[in-house]
Amino acid sequence: MSSIRVEKKGPLAILRLDKPRGNAIDEALVDEITAACVALEADPADRGILLASAHPKLFCPGLDLVGLLEYDRPSMQRFMGKFAAMVWQLYGLRKPVVAAINGHAIAGGCVLECCADRRIAAAGGGRIGVTELLVGVPFPPLAFEIMRFASPPRYLADGMFSGATFTPDVALTRGLVDELAEGAAALLDRAIAAAETLAALSPAAFAQTKQQMRQPVTDAMARHGRQVAAAAEEIWTAPETLDYIRGYVARTFKKT
To answer: Taking the complete model, does pTM exceed 0.90, yes or no?
Structure first.
């Protein structure tokens, strides 16, 4: 069963996360998002992309931590490589990408929505933020640079170190979203309108401007991405890290 749905609406392609029992990111979802982004980039009929969720109160809760606990070191290395490639594919799309954030966007889910050119959240929706350090894992280099790009400098360190998540109105002040829609009912209409506005621009001019805006991320990855990735991978695959993740999962599931 597919974990995503792609729907066409005029010049837009709506990419909906639709994984059964929530949109936790596993290897299969990573593969599907990557393939969808490649196809959407190549199709000239798709002038803009709307990233959304099919779940009524959930955008994306981040990585499937329970599944990751079953990985051996080679499996974890393979997953991290695929996850980085997927994020790069989404972040690097030359076409406009608008995220409609209807509910929780946590950790990797927050990174996903921060890949978009315009991020619109439902007022009163779920929590938004990056919890990686609470889980016990470092940020892969591209995920870190995307968060640095999205977050105003005065909020970056606090958001990364605290692992806090925020209501949409607070997330707006901290740069994690760009705009609030008046509840879930209005969210999709507002996000479609924003995507249509961007899609109406000259594709070549938009793509060049987007590339220029995101050049600092590209430059940072070229300077030290490989070195940081190797260091992060070493921590992610260490036995003590898996123990930390296991403890976080146990505490979190106990609360719920």
So the answer is: yes
